[in-house]
Amino acid sequence: MFDIIKKRLYFSKMQLLFYKGVADKKIIPFDDEFYEKLNHTYISGLPVSIHIKYLKPLLPPMKCYDRSLYMFFCFDDAILVHGDNKDLELRYGKDDSGHG
User: Please, which pLDDT band fits residue 23 given cuts at 50, 70 and 90?
Assistant: First the structure.
C-alpha cells in the first residue's frame, strides 16, 4: 500500500515540477535554429530533424537511444548521455528504466 502512495506522490511531484517549468519558461519547445542544425545530418535517408520532430509518435518505446545518438551526430560539442530514469523505473521496472 505504501508503495502505491509513494508512486502517486512521486508522479504528482513530477507533474507539478513540469507545470512550474513551463510556467517559468524553463521548459520551452525547440526553436527553428535547432531544427535547422539537425537538417544537415542524414540518417536512413532522412534529415535528423524529421526523425526528432515528426517520427517520435510513430516509434515504439526504447528508441530514445537511437534518437539521442542521431542528435549527437549533429553537434560538434555534444555529449551523449544514457542513464536510468526513476519515472521509467516506477512505470516499467528497473530493467526498462534506461533513457537517452
Answer: very high
Q: How far is Cα 79 from Cα 72, in angstroms, rounded to an integer? A: 7
pLDDT number for residue 58: 65
Q: How many CB atoms lie within 10 A of CB 87?
A: 13
Average the pLDDT over 40-64 and give the result: 83
> Three cell numbers at 85?
530514469
DSSP H/E element including 87: helix 86-92
Give 5-64 as a DSSP string: HHHHHHHHHHHHHHHHHHHTTSS-PPPHHHHHHHTT-EETTEEHHHHHHTSGGGSPTT-H
Supply angle C-alpha 8, 14, 18, rounded to 5: 145
The one-character DSSP state at 77 is T
